[in-house]
Backbone:
């Protein structure tokens, strides 16, 4: 793109001889209007729009592209991010709908154990109890004869939910905390951020484990809620720091002063004027928080502290599978591969979003 | 509310900033009045305290490090300094509005123009969404944005600098304020747009009868716009006079220097005059006149004693030991110029 531009700038110079032999000044080169527009640097893009509107006339106003549309276009250009997005959407959809379909088709759900004693043993993928090919269990069954596909999909529901809800919790706490600290500044900011520092210094995995060990274990659902709270409460710290930094750099901009000069209240300035301006980094960090939280959940479940049977998550499925890895490897492989694929995809998507929302970064 | 009289009256305003380098006396004992419907120009170099004066008026000084140390700011008879912040918020934007220097940054880039314009009327006039929306379109129309209805939902980046400044003016005038403070409204714009914006402010001022304080470092801007001018230097008022008088017969060496540094296209004078030296560091002012190190007229007394604020005539004050002498000289020069003009005409 750079080469193209230098060519265009050089072009008129060739038509401009310094002086004709007789010493008469040359005719000034005629430049077309469109030519001039091409020469303008991207910083002058606003002026370009004006010219275009002027040329088109008033009845057809220039439809501006919003920041989000621009970002969306840039995101679609990033193949890896598009791949990640498709995989995430696919896994999310199959996790939501899949278990119902399996139940309708085969009668198996995540906690259905076949009654016959000889069926309560693991089968390899695509095999019927008599060893022949069958579509009933594409991922095989586990030690109790439960369908692993149904369990992976239901586990996906829980894993994704943990990731999503914990991220939303961290978003709500982190953004409001960070924005308030950043905007108010001074002593308030100091105290608020020292609290964050202290929480940072604590080994948060230990806190989550202690929390779960103390209050958990009453019912599978209660354990799940506790998991949401524990992970969310711990993962807002970085979000608060990011938002605080953004707000500090924004609060001295003139539009904040202008808002104050029009009598807008402090809370409205923070949440209507400043927070939307921090959305770019916040969205990026949030999409990168989801896989992080999911990994933590898997870790906790793997240790037996997270999701409890008969509920399943990818972490707890992997934990069950690893006990039989030598004999029944599919019990680990399928949940493991699904989780890895999801985490990869979410990270690709997060990276893609960062590039799309922050074009200046990408140019470097 | 009396129709006549002072809308704003500032008495001995002092705004200081505590810095590591000592106390910066950004505004140090400013006194002035603004009549209803009047336009006041405040002129001065960068760092002379123009903007701080006006931020002080609506108490938007960043605190800390800034602080209004003393003084009285009477807005329509009420002391702004003693109004609780909640009530002050109702004055800001509704009765005192501001236009800022850089239209590129003074609009929120993430909010539609319509939303930003609606915010102020919903807040202060209690408009419903529909009313506020219609009002926003009306205001854009008034400030000369073509096809306001289809452009009102644009984002700021879709507007050019001049258009954004028009939006800022529309926002400032939405609630028909009694006082409009324009802090260098044209500095960030190019010359043709400057003229348009000034013309617009002038026109709207005539239509609404708003009082205006116009802050600028461009003498050309204030010349055609204002009734009275205050010249500031180092946080102090150096000269105060009617616009005509100030331009034709300045009573202060600093004002004279400023006027001489305005380029005059009709005369071929060679290099443009500039006042020697730099504006002083307001944290460490010498005991005498703060302008004395740069002043052509300075004598020993200027370096020793702080000059008096001399009243030259009813509406003309100057902060100088030799105010009367400088004024007399200016008058003589004016006569000489007029005589010269007459001879040329004859």
Residues:
């Amino acid at each position: 793109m750079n080469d193209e531009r230098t060519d265009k700038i050089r072009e008129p110079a060739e038509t401009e001889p310094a002086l004709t032999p007789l010493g008469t000044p040359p005719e000034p080169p005629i430049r077309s209007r469109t030519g001039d527009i091409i020469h303008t640097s991207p910083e002058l893009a606003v002026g370009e729009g004006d010219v275009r509107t002027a040329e088109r006339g008033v009845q057809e106003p220039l439809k501006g592209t919003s920041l989000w549309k621009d970002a969306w276009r840039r995101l679609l250009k990033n193949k890896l991010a598009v791949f990640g997005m498709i995989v995430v959407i696919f896994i999310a959809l199959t996790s939501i709908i899949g278990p119902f379909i399996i139940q309708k088709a085969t009668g198996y759900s995540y906690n259905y154990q076949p009654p016959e004693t000889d069926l309560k043993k693991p089968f390899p993928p695509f095999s019927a109890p008599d060893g022949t090919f069958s579509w009933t269990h594409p991922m095989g069954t586990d030690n109790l004869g439960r369908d692993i596909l149904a369990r992976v999909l239901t586990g996906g529901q829980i894993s994704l939910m943990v990731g999503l809800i914990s991220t939303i919790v961290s978003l709500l706490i982190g953004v409001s905390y960070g924005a308030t600290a950043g905007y108010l500044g001074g002593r308030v900011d100091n105290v608020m951020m020292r609290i964050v520092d202290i929480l940072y210094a604590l080994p948060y995995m230990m806190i989550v484990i202690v929390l779960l060990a103390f209050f958990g274990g009453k019912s599978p659902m209660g354990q799940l809620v506790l998991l949401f709270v524990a992970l969310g409460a711990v993962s807002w710290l970085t979000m608060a720091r990011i938002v605080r930094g953004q707000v500090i750099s924004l609060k001295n901009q003139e539009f904040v002063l202008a808002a104050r000069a029009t009598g807008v209240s402090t809370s409205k300035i923070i949440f209507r004027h400043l927070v939307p301006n921090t959305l770019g980094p916040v969205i990026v960090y949030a999409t990168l928080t989801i896989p992080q939280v999911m990994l933590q959940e898997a870790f906790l479940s793997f240790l037996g502290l997270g999701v409890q049977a008969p509920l399943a998550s990818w972490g707890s499925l992997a934990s069950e599978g690893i006990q039989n890895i030598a004999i029944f490897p599919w019990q680990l492989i399928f949940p493991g591969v699904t989780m890895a694929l999801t985490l990869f995809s979410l990270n690709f998507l997060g990276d893609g979003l960062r590039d799309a929302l922050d074009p200046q970064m990408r140019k470097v | 509310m009396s129709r006549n009289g002072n809308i704003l009256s500032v008495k001995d305003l002092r705004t200081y900033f505590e810095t590591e380098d000592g106390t910066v006396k950004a505004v140090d004992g400013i006194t002035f009045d603004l009549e209803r419907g009047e336009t006041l120009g405040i002129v001065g170099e960068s760092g002379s305290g123009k903007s701080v004066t006006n931020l002080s008026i609506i108490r938007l000084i960043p605190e800390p490090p800034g602080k209004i140390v003393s003084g009285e700011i009477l807005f329509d008879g009420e002391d702004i300094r003693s109004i609780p912040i909640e009530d002050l918020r109702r004055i800001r934007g509704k009765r005192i509005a501001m236009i800022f220097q850089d239209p590129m940054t003074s609009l929120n880039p993430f909010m539609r123009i319509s939303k930003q314009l609606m915010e102020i009327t919903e807040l202060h006039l209690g408009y419903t969404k529909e009313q506020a929306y219609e009002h926003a379109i009306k205001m854009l129309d008034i400030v000369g944005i073509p096809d306001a209805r289809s452009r009102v939902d644009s984002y700021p980046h879709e507007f050019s600098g001049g258009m954004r400044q028009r939006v800022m003016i529309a926002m400032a005038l939405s609630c028909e304020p009694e006082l409009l403070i324009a802090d260098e409204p044209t500095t960030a714009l190019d010359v043709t747009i400057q003229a348009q914006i000034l013309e617009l402010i002038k026109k709207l001022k005539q239509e609404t009868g708003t009082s205006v304080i116009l802050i600028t470092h461009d003498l050309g801007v204030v010349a055609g716009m204002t009734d009275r001018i205050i010249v500031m230097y180092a946080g102090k008022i150096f000269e105060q006079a009617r616009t005509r008088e100030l331009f034709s017969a300045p009573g202060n060496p600093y004002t004279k220097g400023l006027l001489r540094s305005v380029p005059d296209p009709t005369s071929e004078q060679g290099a443009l005059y500039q006042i020697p030296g730099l504006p002083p560091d307001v944290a460490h002012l010498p005991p005498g006149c703060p302008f004395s190190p740069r002043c052509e007229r300075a004598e020993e007394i200027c370096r020793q004693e702080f000059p008096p604020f001399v009243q030259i005539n009813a509406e003309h004050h100057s902060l100088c030991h030799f105010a009367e002498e400088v004024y007399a000289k200016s008058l003589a020069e004016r006569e000489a110029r007029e005589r010269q003009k007459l001879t040329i005409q004859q």
User: Anything to note?
Assistant: The two ends of chain A are 15 Å apart (CA to CA). Chain A has a mean pLDDT of 73. The CA atoms of residues 55 and 275 of chain A lie 37 Å apart. Chain A is about 70% helix and 0% strand.
